[in-house]
Amino acid sequence: MSMQRFFPCILSVFLLFAFLTPIAIHADEPTVDSADAPEAIQVINEEADGAALARPSKAEILAELASLQAEAEAAEEEVEEPKSYFSGKFWALVPPILAILLALITKEVYSSLFIGVCVGGLFVAEGHFLKFMDVIINDGLIAAVQDTAGVFIFLVTLGILVALMNRTGAAQAFGEWAQKHVKSRVGAALMTFVLGVLIFIDDYFNCLTVGSVMLPVTDSKRISRAKLSYLIDATAAPICMIAPISSWAAAVASYSEGTGYNGITLFCKAIPFNFYSLLTIIFVLAITLLKIDFGPMAKHERNAIEKGDLFTEGKEVDSGFKAAATRAGTINDLVLPVLLLIVICFFALLYNGGYFAGDGKSFIDSFGDTDATVALPWGGLLTLVLVILYYIGRNLLTHDPNRPFMPFVIGSKDAMECVATGFNAMVPAILVLTLATTLKNMTGALEAKDFIAGLMSDKAARLHGFLPCVIFLVACVLAFATGTSWGTFGILIPIVVNIFPPSSPLLYIGMSACLAGAVCGDHCSPISDTTIMSSAGAKCQHINHVSTQLPYAIFVAGFSFLSFLIAGFITNWFVVFPISVILMLGTLFIIKSKMKTASETTAE
After folding, report:
1. Per-residue pLDDT tens for 184-240?
2. Among 153, 155, 111, 120, residue whose Cα is nearest residue 139
3. Furthest C-alpha separation in the chain
4. DSSP 330
5. Sign (positive or negative) of CA dihedral 49, 54, 59, 61
6. Rounded to the nearest 5 degrees, what angle is found at the Cα of 325, between the Cα atoms of 321 and 327?
7. DSSP letters along 477-543, please?
8. Residues 6 or more apart from 161 whose CB is under 8 A from it?
């Protein structure tokens, strides 16, 4: 069967099954209505007369009826909605697994995610069509938009900023500067890496800012968009995960509440054992300096170098951005807005966390209480307004040909056109993020996290020294299936701190295994928000990014698993980490040697 007929068949079967299933409509339980109060009063009075009791007053009777009504409503609220047959079982993992497999096979992410959402909704509704529609719309799509509204605002804001930078010619000026000062592909890749390390506050901010700034540089040096996406992704979550001052550290601290441990202390002590994040950084530097690529990434890089094809498969993600070569934008017109965005977003994170409330809240506690989905849109919107005023002020709103000494950067009309352009550029990322979040909601309704947590608490506790590597694997699977690192933290951190005694060195190793596995699963998952943001930042086809990054993530994950296996028995990170680095670098040298031999054989 051709792929063109594949999706219609699936959807036809799904719709046929949904419409043929019985529709269960349950009548509401009768409740006491205020309109029935007179009849109730008469009945109570008659009962009182028959029993020779004192008649209660009307006010007392109404108060009693109100009390009974409140008790009935409270009892109704306490009654839990019956769970689906598929909840808390392996079936709960079927929708995300199906979506991921379809995305990897068909190279088409929208329909794959939508089919996963539909299957998840069908499981939640147990085949009842009206309930299925309620689940998909109310609990799925609407809830997804509500949960990610802040991210959408930040995305659109960054899209507008990028459109402004392109329209003014600032991006082109930066590209020309980079072509003069960045002499090689290695230099461009290292520059991307360094910028990603410097922007450690938040992964969303990292992905979109690094992508916007470095895209013209990497394009000029023929670095494929897939490789740029990986460089962005590899310096987003892994860097945030080892930075005590970041939104990720704040999230870990918040999820540690109620465990009896200080969240920031746990996070900091786990950093040396966060082998996946640390090895990912080493891996990026190694493949850049050694000029090694393998798997699908090798094909993308080879096409970029030899043919100038930056995409290999699929078309360029149309950003809609238009550069104006005649504009007088300079490199400062790009650097200043980016620096302004960093400073204001940093301030917004502290402000949202209550640092400036005047109650003596510490810097660390403020980061622990901040909400990045609120603070980043706050900072992004303020930055956008200031940047528009700055750009327009560069030529006093309009360009006057009689005053050539005022360089034409952008006019007010052009600035407003960039608003629509920037929004349109982010529609694909917003659509994927909406569908991915909807799929997460479906797996949440099916209690996938409880199924995995139950497996871990029942079986992993018997393994003791093997616990770190088991926790790492469980976190990988959970983050891969749900597409969320932070959700994985929330599930596993309370379990981890209860498994290990406070005096055990395995407590911090287990904690780091949880965090490292969450980042690894997040890297591998096509429905991960960070993965989606990295694709958007590099303007790369999402499936190209996923398929090329997956072998690299699995490669590093293998050595991370080995590290946690050793750390379960040798609890010194300065012994385990060097061993892992030596083994990984040795493997890379072997791969390079075999690739060189294969190329020489082909040439002959």
Report:
1. 999 999 999 998 888 776 677 778 778 877 888 898 889 999 999 999 999 988 998
2. 120
3. 114
4. -
5. negative
6. 95
7. HHHHHH--HHHHHHHHHHHHHHHS-TT-THHHHHHHHHHHHHHHHHHH-TT-HHHHHHHHHHT--HH
8. 212, 337, 341, 380, 383, 384, 387, 422
The count of residues in the chain is 604
Residue 284 has a pLDDT of 96
Which run of H or E residues covers position 135? none
The phi and psi torsions of 42 (rounded to 5 degrees) equal -65, -40
More confident residue, 407 or 143: 143
Ramachandran region of residue 447, left (φ > 0), alpha (ψ -120 to 50) or beta? left
- Asked if 313 and 541 count as a contact pair (C-beta separation under 8 A), the reply is yes
Alpha-carbon distance values, 201 to 285, 345, 379, 566, 597 (Å): 21, 9, 13, 31, 43
Phi-psi label, residue 91: left if phi above 0, alpha if psi -120 to 50, beta otherwise: alpha
Tokens describing residue 300: 């993308």
Quote the CA–CA distance of 587 and 599 in Å, as a whole number: 18
Q: Residue 225 to residues 239, 339, 400, 535, 546: CA-CA distances in angstroms? A: 21, 24, 40, 9, 12
Residue 300 CA to residue 310 CA, distance in Å, equals 7
Q: How far is CA 267 from CA 248, 270, 370, 576, in A?
A: 10, 5, 16, 19
Distance from C-alpha of 425 to C-alpha of 208, rounded to nearest angstrom:
12
Q: Whose structure tokens read 């360094």?
A: 194
- Distance from the first to the final alpha carbon of the chain: 41
Q: Which distant-in-sequence residues (6+ apart) come within 8 Å of 43 by Cβ?
A: none
Structural element, H or E, at residue 21: none
> Which band of pLDDT confidence, cut at 50, 70 and 90, is reported for residue 96?
confident
Q: Residue 308 and residue 281: Cα distance in Å, rounded?
A: 27
**For 137-145, which contacts have Cβ atoms below 8 Å and span 24 or more sequence positions?**
139/441, 139/445, 140/438, 140/441, 140/442, 141/434, 141/438, 143/438, 143/441, 144/434, 144/435, 144/437, 144/438, 144/440, 144/441, 145/434
Q: Which of 225, 212, 217, 211 is nearest to 177 (CA)?
A: 217
DSSP string of 75-91? HHHHSPPPPPTTTTSGG
For 246, 296, 351, 357, 379, the CA distances from 354, given in Å and listed in that order, are 15, 46, 5, 5, 15
Amino acid at 257: E
Chain-centre distance of CA 56, in angstroms?
A: 62
CA distances from 90 to 267, 392, 479 (A): 31, 57, 15
> Buried (b) or exposed (e) across 271-297, using 16+ Cβ within 10 A?
bbbbbbbbbbbbbbebbbeeebbbebb
List, for residues 13-36, the tens digit of each pLDDT value: 444 344 444 433 333 344 444 455
For residue 398, what is the enclosing H or E element? none
Angstrom distance (rounded) from CA 363 to CA 370: 11
Cβ partners under 8 Å of residue 540, min gap 6 = 225, 226, 228, 229, 311, 317, 534
